[in-house]
């Protein structure tokens, strides 16, 4: 039986429509990208169909300063080094772990550039600490004690209220919430480190913690890179935070920006800060904050940002609100919210080429310059850790620069 021409046409259109739907579905579904690590899989969502670290990674574009072409000798008075330091807040007891980390960073980067190390501590450093750290580098080492007025809780913090509120945080399983030194450390890293008198003439810093690892040879002066490309802040890992540790951070921030709308940058990263799609419960518990942040155990930054009027006003506002002690605000979300609101998004840089690990997360690029980590592997441990990756949001709203 012959089929009428209009019916045939309709049939063809229907088949085409079905094919189109199939095509759209197969191309928009987030893919499962194997992280090639012991069967771990890393589910990537919207904004990150494939982990960019699986693709070959080279050096950043533009002019790069190299040790072969310039004077980076440790004692040179004419050296090409800029005003910058490796910076580590550390306890005497962490000496062994710190020296291992120093060896990593010296081997992969600093033996070429010889930037000084500055060690900071709320206690005096021991002679053994000074000797063993200096033995790990040709560069100059400085050992500085933190003034008590920078470290201790401000006088308006109520000790009884701290005890009560920390008990509640501990019941909620918030790590370190009962440890007063941890709260002090987070506050100091938020609003004090760049005020240390020994750093008064230093502009750029690379924060280094004991126990972290570095995997890739970096053959250019990263501080010069920051300066030449007008960057304020560089990160490697981008994470969600525990919302229970900071329920009032975002409400306080909103009050602050209502008072000071002039501080908010035009090209800001607000969408990354307020996303409620990827982890709606996080946003809800954090009262409007996605909890996404740059993981601040690694940072390469320009202290002039933290010394600016807008950051200083923001930190003082937060400090008065008391959340460093009554809650457990970390310096990572505080730095990140400030950068996300008050800095131009183009001034933040993802150092994708710096292979890095702070347990349990990695930034491991696919590059012949790297060894000892697995490209694209984001975490090691329980599979729920994969959910803590906020890079899909960052790439979606801010970009992969
Ligand atoms: N001097 C000193 N350093 C501290 C203290 N608490 C933490 N730190 C340092 O602060 C950084 C962060 O602490 P860490 O224990 O690694 O915290 P985590 O990374 O959040 O688990 C590390 O460099 C520690 O060495 C402290 O009470 N005194
Ligand atoms: Mg740490």
TrEMBL record:
<dbReference type="Pfam" id="PF01793">
    <property type="entry name" value="Glyco_transf_15"/>
</dbReference>
<dbReference type="GO" id="GO:0006487">
    <property type="term" value="P:protein N-linked glycosylation"/>
</dbReference>
<keyword id="KW-0328">Glycosyltransferase</keyword>
<comment type="similarity">
    <text>Belongs to the glycosyltransferase 15 family.</text>
</comment>
<dbReference type="GO" id="GO:0016020">
    <property type="term" value="C:membrane"/>
</dbReference>
<protein>
    <recommendedName>
        <fullName>Mannosyltransferase KTR4</fullName>
    </recommendedName>
</protein>
<dbReference type="GO" id="GO:0000026">
    <property type="term" value="F:alpha-1,2-mannosyltransferase activity"/>
</dbReference>
<dbReference type="InterPro" id="IPR002685">
    <property type="entry name" value="Glyco_trans_15"/>
</dbReference>
<dbReference type="GO" id="GO:0005794">
    <property type="term" value="C:Golgi apparatus"/>
</dbReference>
<dbReference type="InterPro" id="IPR029044">
    <property type="entry name" value="Nucleotide-diphossugar_trans"/>
</dbReference>
<feature type="compositionally biased region" description="Basic and acidic residues">
    <location>
        <begin position="40"/>
        <end position="53"/>
    </location>
</feature>
<feature type="active site" description="Nucleophile">
    <location>
        <position position="299"/>
    </location>
</feature>
<keyword id="KW-0808">Transferase</keyword>
<dbReference type="GO" id="GO:0006493">
    <property type="term" value="P:protein O-linked glycosylation"/>
</dbReference>
<dbReference type="GO" id="GO:0000032">
    <property type="term" value="P:cell wall mannoprotein biosynthetic process"/>
</dbReference>
<feature type="region of interest" description="Disordered">
    <location>
        <begin position="30"/>
        <end position="53"/>
    </location>
</feature>
């Amino acid at each position: 039986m012959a089929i009428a021409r209009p019916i045939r046409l309709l049939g063809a259109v229907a088949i085409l429509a079905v094919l189109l739907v199939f095509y759209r579905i197969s191309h928009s579904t987030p893919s499962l990208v194997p992280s090639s690590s012991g069967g771990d899989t890393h589910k990537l969502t919207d904004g990150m169909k494939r982990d960019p670290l699986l693709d070959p990674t080279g050096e950043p574009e533009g002019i790069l300063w190299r040790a072969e072409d310039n004077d980076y000798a440790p004692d040179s008075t004419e050296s090409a080094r800029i005003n910058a330091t490796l910076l580590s807040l550390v306890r005497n007891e962490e000496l062994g772990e710190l020296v291992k980390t120093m060896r990593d960073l010296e081997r992969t980067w600093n033996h070429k550039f010889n930037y000084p190390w500055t060690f900071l501590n709320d206690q005096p450093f021991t002679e053994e600490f000074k000797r063993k750290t200096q033995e790990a580098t040709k560069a100059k080492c400085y050992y500085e004690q933190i003034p008590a007025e920078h470290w201790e809780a401000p006088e308006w913090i109520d000790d009884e209220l701290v005890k009560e509120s920390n008990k509640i945080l501990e019941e909620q399983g918030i790590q370190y919430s009962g440890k007063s030194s941890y709260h002090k450390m987070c506050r100091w890293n938020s609003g004090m480190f760049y005020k240390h008198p020994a750093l008064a003439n230093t502009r750029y810093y690379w924060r280094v913690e004991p126990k972290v690892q570095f995997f890739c040879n970096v053959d250019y002066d990263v501080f010069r890179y920051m300066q030449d490309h007008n960057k304020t802040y560089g990160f490697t890992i981008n994470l969600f935070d525990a919302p229970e540790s900071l329920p009032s951070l975002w409400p306080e921030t909103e009050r602050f920006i209502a008072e000071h709308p002039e501080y908010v940058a035009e090209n800001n990263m607000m969408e990354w800060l307020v996303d409620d799609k990827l982890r709606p419960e996080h946003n809800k518990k954090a009262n409007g904050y996605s909890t996404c942040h740059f993981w601040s155990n690694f940072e390469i930054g320009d202290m002039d940002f933290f010394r600016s009027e807008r950051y200083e006003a923001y930190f003082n506002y937060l400090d008065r609100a008391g959340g460093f002690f009554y809650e457990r605000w970390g310096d990572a979300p505080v730095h990140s919210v400030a950068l996300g609101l008050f800095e131009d998004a183009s001034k933040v840089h993802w150092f994708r080429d710096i292979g890095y690990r702070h347990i349990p997360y990695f930034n491991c690029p696919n590059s012949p310059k790297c060894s000892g980590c697995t490209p694209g592997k984001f975490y090691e441990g329980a599979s729920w850790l994969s959910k803590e990756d906020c890079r899909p949001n960052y790439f979606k709203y801010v970009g992969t620069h």
